[in-house]
Amino acid sequence: xxxxxxxxxxxxxxxxxxxxxxxxxxxxxxxxxxxxxxxxxxxxxxxxxxxxxxxxxxxxxxxxxxxxxxxxxxxxxxxxxxxxxxxxxxxxxxxxxxxxxxxxxxxxxxxxxxxxxxxxxxxxxxxxxxxxxxxxxxxxxxxxxxxxxxxxxxxxxxxxxxxxxxxxxxxxxxxxxxxxxxxxxxxxxxxxxxxxxxxxxxxxxxxxxxxxxxxxxxxxxxxxxxxxxxxxxxxxxxxxxxxxxxxxxxxxxxxxxxxxxxxxxxxxxxxxxxxxxxxxxxxxxxxxxxxxxxxxxxxxxxxxxxxxxxxxxxxxxxxxxxxxxxxxxxxxxxxxxxxxxxxxxxxxxxxxxxxxxxxxxxxxxxxxxxxxxxxxxxxxxxxxxxxxxxxxxxxxxxxxxxxxxxxxxxxxxxxxxxxxxxxxxxxxxxxxxxxxxxxxxxxxxxxxxxxxxxxxxxxxxxxxxxxxxxxxxxxxxxxxxxxxxxxxxxxxxxxxxxxxxxxxxxxxxxxxxxxxxxxxxxxxxxxxxxxxxxxxxxxxxxxxxxxxxxxxxxxxxxxxxxxxxxxxxxxxxxxxxxxxxxxxxxxxxxxxxxxxxxxxxxxxxxxxxxxxxxxxxxxxxxxxxxxxxxxxxxxxxxxxxxxxxxxxxxxxxxxxxxxxxxxxxxxxxxxxxxxxxxxxxxxxxxxxxxxxxxxxxxxxxxxxxxxxxxxxxxxxxxxxxxxxxxxxxxxxxxxxxxxxxxxxxxxxxxxxxxxxxxxxxxxxxxxxxxxxxxxxxxxxxxxxxxxxxxxxxxxxxxxxxxxxxxxxxxxxxxxxxxxxxxxxxxxxxxxxxxxxxxxxxxxxxxx
Length: 847
Prior knowledge:
Elements: E1 12-17, E2 19-21, E3 24-26, E4 33-40, H1 44-47, E5 76-79, E6 82-85, E7 99-110, E8 114-122, E9 125-130, E10 133-138, E11 147-152, E12 155-165, E13 173-180, E14 189-192, H2 201-206, E15 209-215, E16 221-230, E17 235-244, E18 249-254, E19 261-265, E20 271-278, E21 281-288, E22 293-302, E23 304-309, E24 315-323, E25 346-354, E26 360-362, E27 371-375, E28 381-389, E29 397-405, E30 411-417, E31 423-425, E32 431-436, H3 440-443, E33 460-465, E34 470-473, E35 481-489, E36 492-499, E37 502-509, E38 514-518, E39 524-530, E40 536-543, E41 546-554, E42 559-564, E43 579-581, E44 584-585, E45 591-592, E46 594-597, E47 608-613, H4 631-636, E48 640-644, H5 654-657, H6 666-682, E49 686-696, H7 698-706, E50 715-719, H8 725-730, H9 735-742, H10 752-755, E51 771-776, H11 785-796, E52 801-806, H12 816-835, H13 839-845
Parallel strand pairs: 1-13, 47-48, 47-49, 49-50, 50-51, 51-52
Antiparallel strand pairs: 2-3, 4-7, 5-6, 7-12, 7-14, 8-11, 8-13, 9-10, 9-12, 15-16, 16-17, 17-18, 19-20, 20-21, 21-22, 23-24, 24-25, 25-26, 27-28, 28-29, 29-30, 31-32, 32-33, 33-34, 35-36, 36-37, 37-38, 39-40, 40-41, 41-42, 43-46, 44-45, 46-48
Helix pairs in contact: 12-13
């Protein structure tokens, strides 16, 4: 150890890592990041509170603000008028007569779950934080130093030492060591000051995220809706930025109005309407950017649903829900299957609100909910729709569209569809654009071989002429499925689409029915809006290996501009692995697309476990960056991740998507098996004995189905999976309606070869793969019993199975703490079976 010189060097540190390997201690020395010394008035300010040290900037102690301690960021904090910066150099200092505070930072890295004992030794007063949590402290310089036990998951963990220097004392001698289990190798656990790291669940859930965007009618301003987790309240804070699109600068922010929502620009000028919520009631305001003032338009409206501006800006149309008479006996008689829905007990109606006078009145009535679709360009008419249930005609849900003359109140019926998409007016008001499945309007949009039942989730575009009452199918020869429609110019419609694994923007020329791809520079579109003229767009987009950012795009000159990157700081030092496309040809000669994520520290000379992910249902797995099943995080934990798009999903044309209908695992399981075998042929570094598979919802069904047909996987995970098609079909909210497409014209009484033979519950004895079943305890889509009955079967068969029910969660696991544990359980389970590492799983579930 070097000699200590208290008058020339403020602090000397020896930071050793001790690992027990066959009773041998191994030690390493590391560098630190330093901040201070900071003069303070009393020790109570440090030991009891950190408010005076600007906790928003430096003492959050989690990965969310990890970059704030990086010296290359040149970050400074202000304390009593003086600036302090992080540095790798020690600050020279002599003995002084007041209290001083000093910070040190480093990282502990582990490549697997590790139980670590942290030992501190110092003659000073200090606190030690690991990943933002206070782990140990010493409040008396004469007392003995404490130990703390750490459960460290895969990755880098930030260690902050907060040391208090007493008046007239020399700088302390500080030693920190770590001991771990003898099974951990030296290279698997070490200290470092290198800030480079991999992406984590904290980045997924805690960072600021762009949620939606809206552009003013003249294209000069944009509102960006943002969200960020409020850890103190365990909730999400929503706030907004207004950007001047000409200068690209922020001109206003609404960070304090946490309940601000539903912002819509006025059709002209720089004003916008927005709502706030108070005790369950809604207030509607009109804001003016030029004056900075807001006017109250509606006050404390109960059961307010939403609103839309009239194109002339003179009025709004909004919705209010009204409850139907309720049963008082405690017994409920069902009139049809839709009575299971909670919202079946109320109807929504349209109301008119004059912006200047405040005059309001009701536009629609009846025993059925009415939904606003579009207001005509001259603001004289609107299209609304009513939906009803019809048990005698598949797909059972039907929608009728009406044209309402706002001044006279006259109502004319337009057309009927099945579920029906949103309908919008053309710029001249003479036509309507509507989306729907291929079999809408008497199979008008159908483009499949004769006798093939189409996948009606493969959304098509139709155009309806109001005067001639003629409906035209305009996209049936266009392979991408239609997401949203924007009719801004007479002969041009903008479309966002599902284009294979990507979401793209196209313009459709109605004169020659030609489609023009518009390259927005992203692979997925989370939100998009256009100015009134259709010359400028603003959108939120991501790529498979790049997080969501906010962009503007000038359609005439094809110029893209980055407006806002909400996670710029956090991703400054994050290292991501590469992603490669991987496709193969199936038995029918069709190309099955996919892509492969690699670990950020990938080394082709090593052997890797692999996770195979799929959905297999009616939509493809998009190349999104995050999501509920974050492939980048799995890769960051040392896995190759293979994602494939089996036959049956939309985005590849109607013939491809029609493979979904009545298949239920026949084609898709064969393609998953074949794709995995082709993957092993190409990538020799994937260990064929360490393959895992995972899917959710229909993908959960696919997991259970798959392992009845192959033993090639060493572990399988099914979230919210379907184990018996008949019980799913009759229970839950959507079983019968989803099956109206996915199992068209097939029922338990006429297709036992589907409902029995393709249900994994009836083939449970064929399963040899260890299986983890995950399910929300309040799942209204796929009832929890689907996993419970499979768990029961496999337990009675003596199979290797685990079942985790997430209390109070629906089909999606959204509650923060439960989502974290649920996500980590998936990785811990794969670590157990694909890496031979039991510690994480055992720690989570006290095995």
